[in-house]
């Protein structure tokens, strides 16, 4: 038998055209510092460190013995999750959703958002993306062969929709919005969300509202859902997740809810590529959504205490900090004269603190960095002191 020359297996050209995922890059850098013997306080990735709520764990323990849950899952999602989410959505946002047509369970909102974009976008379509963005918005757009066009922010953190060039708006199919925003921490009130929906309606766009931080509001702030806006169901889908609100990031469970035609397209995509989302995480998420009024307040109180500890300690060190009213982050300017990656490396190498460079969230994030509130208040105070020393070190 003639042996053929083995061809190297490489990522496809399309994948090679996409830059490495920033947290993957950051993981490599952290590993190198740890190998060099450094102890790091990791405030990089926004991975919730608080425990999974007891009530959810108890429900999981019972559910694991349920025979029917070991079969292939329901394609669209488990009725128990849909029932629990429908009640949550009604109580929390005053919206009525039809579980059979307007809900679909996904393996987290990152995957879910990617699948929505792949299900509805054609090559050549434009996807309108906030200029500082959660990276998957651009990656999903590129995977679909569509074109990302960035929408700048106004000073108040809202999207400057008037700045979108007419030629690109004419080709636009999707507008992605993320409030409360990672990483900027900007929030909207209902009037701001109404403007997004009205814009999508006016221009025939699908509005994808990423509400990953739905429950992480401070000082009484409660993020609205885009689906609260009358008529939003005609043009909107929204991402919800158990990851942040309930500290269940590893369960990989979320929902896409809203426009029935878009969910149908998503269903076509998913039934051809998978078997539906795993049942047990859905049952766990159902327990969390059902118990949201008990589960969420202590989680939010802890984040708020962390925010306050960090903000106070940074202000004492001379940092210009606004206390965010939502999310689990602080978004700060890099000390003068430094590139954001240089700053991140400097903090890691000399002060043992890991933060995320702003350019991880797009070129418009240059000159900023993000701190995740994923350690208790005492560690965050230490981190603030270390960052203050780091800043005086580089400015000296
Ligand atoms: C804005 C935003 N959307 C979605 C996600 C992904 O969350 P999930 O765990 O549901 O995939 C994140 C995670 O950090 C996020 O910041």
Description:
- The chain is α/β, with parallel strands linked by helices.
- It has two domains: 13-51 and 296-395, Aspartate Aminotransferase, domain 1 (Alpha-Beta Complex); 54-293, 3-Layer(aba) Sandwich (Aspartate Aminotransferase, domain 2), CATH 3.40.640.
- The chain has 14 helices and twelve strands.
- The protein has helices spanning 13-16, 22-35, 54-63, 79-93, 109-120, 136-143, 166-171, 190-203, 242-245, 260-273, 279-290, 292-316, 340-351, 377-395, and strands spanning 41-42, 103-106, 126-130, 147-151, 172-177, 206-210, 236-241, 254-258, 329-333, 353-354, 356-357, 368-372.
- It has a seven-stranded mixed sheet, sandwiched between helices. A three-stranded antiparallel sheet has the order 9-12-11, with helices on one face.
- Helix 6 links the parallel strand 3 and strand 4 (147-151).
- Helix 3 (54-63) packs antiparallel against helix 11 (279-290), helix 12 (292-316) packs parallel to helix 14 (377-395) and helix 13 (340-351) packs across helix 14.
- The longest helix is centred in the C-terminal third of the chain and has 25 residues, at 292-316.
Tags for this entry?
globular; binds pyridoxal-5'-phosphate; Aspartate Aminotransferase, domain 2; Aspartate Aminotransferase, domain 1; 7-stranded mixed sheet; 396 residues; alpha/beta; 12 strands; 3-stranded antiparallel sheet; 14 helices
């Amino acid at each position: 038998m003639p042996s053929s020359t083995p061809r190297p297996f490489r990522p496809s050209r399309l994948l090679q055209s996409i830059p490495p995922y920033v947290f993957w890059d950051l993981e490599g850098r952290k590993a190198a510092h740890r190998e060099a013997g450094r102890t790091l306080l990791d405030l990089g990735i926004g991975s919730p460190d608080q425990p999974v709520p007891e009530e959810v764990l108890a429900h999981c323990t019972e559910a694991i013995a349920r025979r029917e849950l070991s079969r292939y899952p329901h394609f669209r999602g488990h009725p128990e999750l849909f029932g629990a989410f429908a009640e949550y959505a009604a109580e929390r946002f005053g919206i009525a959703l039809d579980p059979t047509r307007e809900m679909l369970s996904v393996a987290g909102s990152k995957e879910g958002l990617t699948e929505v974009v792949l299900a509805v976008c054609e090559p050549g379509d434009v996807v309108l993306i906030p200029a500082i963005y959660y990276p998957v918005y651009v990656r999903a757009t590129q995977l679909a062969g569509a074109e990302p066009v960035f929408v700048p922010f106004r000073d108040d953190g809202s999207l400057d929709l008037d700045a979108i060039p007419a030629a690109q708006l004419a080709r636009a199919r999707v507008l992605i919005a993320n409030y409360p925003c990672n990483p900027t921490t900007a929030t909207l009130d209902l009037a701001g969300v109404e403007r997004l929906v009205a814009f999508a309606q006016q221009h025939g766009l699908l509005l994808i509202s990423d509400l990953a931080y739905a429950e992480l509001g401070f000082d009484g702030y409660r993020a609205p859902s885009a689906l609260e806006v009358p008529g939003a169901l005609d043009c909107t889908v929204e991402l919800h997740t158990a990851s942040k609100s309930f500290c269940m990031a590893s369960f990989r469970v979320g929902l896409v809810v809203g426009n029935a035609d878009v969910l149908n397209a998503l269903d076509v995509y998913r039934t051809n590529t998978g078997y539906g989302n795993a049942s047990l995480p859905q049952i766990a998420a159902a327990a969390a959504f059902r118990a949201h009024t008990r589960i969420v307040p202590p989680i939010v109180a802890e984040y708020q205490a962390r925010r306050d500890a960090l903000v106070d300690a940074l202000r004492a060190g001379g940092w210009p900090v606004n206390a965010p009213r939502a999310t689990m982050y602080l978004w700060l300017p890099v000390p003068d004269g430094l590139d954001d990656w240089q700053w991140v490396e400097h903090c890691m190498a000399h002060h043992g603190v890991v933060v995320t460079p702003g350019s991880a969230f797009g070129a418009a994030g240059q000159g900023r960095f993000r701190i995740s509130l994923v350690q208790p208040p005492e560690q965050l105070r230490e981190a603030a002191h270390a960052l203050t020393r780091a800043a005086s070190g580089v400015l000296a």
